[in-house]
């Protein structure tokens, strides 16, 4: 998958030790980029680092809490120090809720989902922008892994829906303010994917909420509508070209195989 647009660049991927994040990060390494990832899962980080040993010193891994501003700022500073610059941030880290509506949603789950999906994305966006502005030449691109739940009222529970709606506001505000400075921001509106974001369902979920969501947007067939992670990678590498990212600055890009139909 080597491509001139990715080779030599430095890419940060949050939640990069598992699922979509790991697939994206691995592809950029294979394409010749420097890659830095952080994740909260120590075991996944160790396994990922071991698998990347063939890439020598072209990668950096860190166990970092995305909701801790000091830790996030330190991580980005370490990336800039190691590789000299940062060209791209992929805000991939995310957690799902359990399909609870507001009346039954526990506050601790609300705080966790908003913290990771929205506050974490903001903290990483902030750190990346500061790096983009201070390096020479300045500039960079931020891809945000959003969701069909970013534009639909009931594709998930209240917490996840609110977090992904809020993420689009962050994307558009960032694109508008920083676009003239060569810093671009866009969102992928993802459909169904086979990733570790649904790990939370292992402890149960709101049956009524799930049934309601399926009734509102029926017809999901994993064999037909599931998005291949390797196809998402192609979009990421495509937008690693700043000229391409500029043309889609502020855009919401559907990657969902036309499900749910809107």
TrEMBL record:
<dbReference type="GO" id="GO:0006633">
    <property type="term" value="P:fatty acid biosynthetic process"/>
</dbReference>
<dbReference type="Pfam" id="PF00106">
    <property type="entry name" value="adh_short"/>
</dbReference>
<dbReference type="InterPro" id="IPR020904">
    <property type="entry name" value="Sc_DH/Rdtase_CS"/>
</dbReference>
<keyword id="KW-0521">NADP</keyword>
<protein>
    <submittedName>
        <fullName>Uncharacterized protein</fullName>
    </submittedName>
</protein>
<dbReference type="GO" id="GO:0048038">
    <property type="term" value="F:quinone binding"/>
</dbReference>
<dbReference type="GO" id="GO:0016616">
    <property type="term" value="F:oxidoreductase activity, acting on the CH-OH group of donors, NAD or NADP as acceptor"/>
</dbReference>
<dbReference type="InterPro" id="IPR036291">
    <property type="entry name" value="NAD(P)-bd_dom_sf"/>
</dbReference>
<dbReference type="InterPro" id="IPR002347">
    <property type="entry name" value="SDR_fam"/>
</dbReference>
<comment type="similarity">
    <text>Belongs to the short-chain dehydrogenases/reductases (SDR) family.</text>
</comment>
